[in-house]
Each structure stands twice: as structure tokens, then as C-alpha cells.
Amino acid sequence: MDYLPVEVIGNILSHLGAARDVIVASATCRKWRKACQKHLHTISFNSHDWPLYRDLSTSRLEILITQTLFQTTRLQGLSILMDDDDEFSASTVVAWLMYTRESLQWLFYNVRTTPNIYILDICGRQKLEMLVLAHNSVSGVEPNYQRFLCLKSLSLSYISISALDLNLLLMVCPKIEILALVNPEIAMSDAQVTVELNSTTLKSIYIEAISLDKFILEADSLENLHLKDCALELFELVRKGTLKYLKIDDVSIIHLDVGEAVDNLETVDVSNFTINWSKFYQMISKSSAMRSLRIWDVVFDEEDEIVDIETIALCFPQLSHLAVSYDLRDDLREGILHYGLQGLSLLENVNVLELGSTVINDIFTHLNLSRSETYVDVEYWAQSKIAEAGRKGDLKTQHE
């Protein structure tokens, strides 16, 4: 260790991440202290990393963070994630950000201050490439001043923001590629809850816990769309057919439109969803390049909504991974389930096949799969259902 250059030691300390570990390690000797001061590029202050953080008063914690930060130079990554119970002095937190902002490339920020400080004013026009912001408010985005010319990834969790400011925020990030929205509090100017976003560079968007009337996204370069735990009357995606990955998990949508050009879709993963299946299938049926299709825990009430595997095999000839699990009314179950499995022999390129059902009967014993490497996950699914029933004390389901 004595022969390691200080630059290498600084890199080692940066990989430790947690401020407590960095401080303890840098106390080893003068050389390590120098490495911490001159070559540390990443540090994290997280109240969950060290229980002692919670035992310190807010003022003492401010002093500790200030002393640590002001001993570093040219930090590239800074994470400050503190419990909601702590309220820091705004002037102190501003000093931290002003000291580090010129060299920061990524910032994770979840700090409550009195009064509230505006991150966009402090970190705009700098080198920031990633911003993760939580439990704060964003208001009055000014496109002519608050520019994030290098920002590629933006995550907003539990943020208070208007629909207009959200769109303006994307506009002031001309290179943004990744956007995550988790349970935002979106202020509206009229009775209809509508969000319209526009970005020519956005490639991936993750949306969780949003309830809106309309969500319209115009993103010509979008490749990845993931919706989770949302309630939307209308979701419309306007783009030029670049979408490759679509995941919908526990979402209720009355009208879903991802555009006409779906030729590049490679992965579709749908689970616990409420939507008209026939319309959804008609939408994705043009995706001849599909390689992975997952339809899991879906309830069908009508016979004409059944997932016909033979049709899937014909529509998606390149499919290599297929997962299907759905429930039916008792009067539909026997005949429809058998009909739905008719086309299994046509899945020539499928090497992973997962089938789930609340009833495992003789139908499954007649599956004729030509490829020895094909994996049918029926037994695992049944065992998981039995285990779940056992936890809930449902003896009838255990018996089944």
C-alpha cells in the first residue's frame, strides 16, 4: 500500500462511497489524507448508512458535512440523502452546492431546508450529467437562464411541479436521454389533469404512481417505456417507431396509443393490467421483430379475448421467450384453455416458455414441445400459488 500513487488511493476511497468509511480510511496516514483531499471524486452522505447520523443534532450534522466537503477538491459525484425529520439551514446547503457545483457530474439530493432552496438556479449551466431529486418542489422554470446543457439523466421522486414546468424542464435539458417520474405532485391550471411532454432526445422513460386524465408524450427517439402502478384515462405516445421495450405493470388505462410504427418492438411485458386485450394485441401484432412477450396475471371475462398462442406464433416468428398466465371464468376455463394452448408446437424459436394457470390439469400433460431446451414453468407457478395460499391460510386453494 505504501507504493500506491495517491491518485489510485483516491480512486479506492471514491469506491467506498459512504462518507463515514472515507473519513475513517483517510485517517490511516498523511498520504491517505492527501488522497482524500486531492483525488476523491465521489462521496455520499446517507442517513441510512450510519445510525450515528440520527443521533446527531441537525447543526452538528451540518458542521460534519461542511468540514468533510470543504476538504475535497473537484468532486464529480455527490449524494446527500437525509431523513425527512431533519431540516437543514438553507444557507449551509447552498454553500455545499456552490462549493462543489463546478465539477459535479452527478447529484443525488434529498434534503429538507428552511426556507426551500431552488436546485435549478444553483446547478444550472454547469457540468451536471445526472440529477436525482426527491421530496422537493420545482416552480417557475426559466428556459433562458436555467439550462442543463450536459444533463442526460433526470429522476424526480415525490416532487411538486406543474405540468408546464415539467415540460419546460425537459426543454432546458437538450441532451436528456433518461427520465424517471415517481409519484409527482402535479399542479394543474384547469380541471382536467393533463400532462404533455416533448423531447427529441429522450430514449427511456419510467413512470410510477401517477393518476391523470391524459398523458401525452412526444418523443421521436424513445426506445424504452415502463409504466408502473398508474391510473390513466389516456396515454398517448407520439414517436417515429423507435420503441423497442414496453413494460406495463399494475396499470389501469382506458385508452393506450403508442403510435402506428411498432415494427421495432422487441420486448413486451404486461402484468396485472386493466385494458381491452383485443385492442392491445392488435396494436402490438405488427411487431414482427418481437423476441420476448410476457402476459402475466391477466383476467379475461370474454371468450374472444383469449390469448391464442397459435396466432402469437404466426405474428411473432422470432419469439424466443414467451410467458403467459391468465385467469378465466369457470364456465370458460376448460375449452378456452385448451384452445389457447393449441399452437405451442409452432413456437420453433422459443427456448424459454412459461405457462401459468390457477388450474393444472390433463391439458398440460399433452404439451408436445419439439425443442428439448424449452422450459415450461408450470410446476414452479403452481408451487408459488400453494405457498401463497399457505401464507394466507386458504386451505381450499392449498388443496387445489
TrEMBL record:
CDD domains, sorted: F-box_SF
Domain F-box: 4-45
InterPro entries: F-box-like_dom_sf (IPR036047), F-box_dom (IPR001810), LRR_dom_sf (IPR032675), LRR_FXL15/At3g58940/PEG3-like (IPR055411)
SUPFAM superfamilies given in the database record: F-box domain, RNI-like
Protein name listed in UniProt: F-box domain-containing protein
Organism: Anisodus acutangulus
